[in-house]
UniProtKB/TrEMBL annotation:
InterPro entries, per the entry: DNA/RNA_pol_sf, RT_dom
Origin superkingdom: Eukaryota
Source lineage: Eukaryota, Metazoa, Cnidaria, Anthozoa, Octocorallia
PROSITE patterns from the UniProt entry: RT_POL
Entry protein name: Uncharacterized protein
Pfam assignment, any one: RVT_1
Organism the protein comes from: Paramuricea clavata (Red gorgonian)
Length: 215
């Protein structure tokens, strides 16, 4: 994004929110993808045994619900969970046409650099890539939450002020409007990449922790 700013480009950054991503993994699809990445038949049998035969129940006080079989998802808290999820979504970045899509476990984002005068074409490209991404997620039984999906436009003040129109994206029946700050993998990013918000929040957290220690 910094390189894009140096080239007088604005970058549209879309942070996707996958609802209950680890709990939504389809076991049949996952086992097929393990086979596609070269897992041996013995390893696939082991993973099938690892995933199958699980159940859950809810306890509130002394009251216990009936047991329900788990047909989706991977056990959370295990080191295997992010590994298996990574394999499950390893072909997701290939679905977009114009944007680049990067993923880190269940955090995925689209980004596309564009010239200010190309804003209308950019809106069409982004909406097309969002549609393809949502279609892939639907086919893989993953749910994107459009209400928590964020759009950030990154550029210099002059470039953002010179945008000829407001960029609003239609996505899953919702309108994505640009925000001023987003949080991605623990970092607060603002529209100028100044990191002022991140430093301010980090400093505030450190001061609170130091006050607790000094008591």
């Amino acid at each position: 994004m910094l390189e894009a700013m140096d080239k007088k480009h604005v970058t549209a950054l879309i942070l996707l929110d996958l609802s209950k991503a680890f709990d939504s993994i389809n076991h049949t699809i996952l086992l097929h993808k393990l086979k596609c990445v070269g897992a041996s038949p013995l390893a696939i049998q082991w993973f099938e045994s690892y995933l199958s035969g699980r159940s859950q129940y809810v306890r509130i006080g002394s009251t216990v619900s009936s047991t329900s079989a788990l047909t989706h998802g991977v056990p959370q808290g295990s080191i295997l969970s992010p590994f298996l999820f990574g394999i499950y979504v390893n072909d997701l970045p290939a679905v977009t046409v114009s944007s680049d899509l990067d993923s880190y476990v269940d955090d995925s984002k689209l980004h596309l650099a564009f010239l200010v005068e190309d804003v209308q074409q950019t809106i069409a490209k982004l909406e097309n890539d969002l549609y393809k991404t949502a279609k892939w997620c639907l086919e893989h039984q993953l749910l994107i939450n459009p209400d928590k999906t964020k759009l950030l436009l990154v550029g210099t003040r002059s470039m953002l002020q010179n945008l000829p129109t407001q960029i609003n994206l239609n996505f899953l029946g919702k309108t994505l409007k640009p925000v001023s700050v987003v949080k991605d993998l623990g970092m607060h990013l603002d529209l100028h990449l100044s990191y002022d918000d991140h430093i301010s929040k980090l400093s505030s957290t450190c001061i609170n922790k130091l006050c607790q220690i000094s008591r």
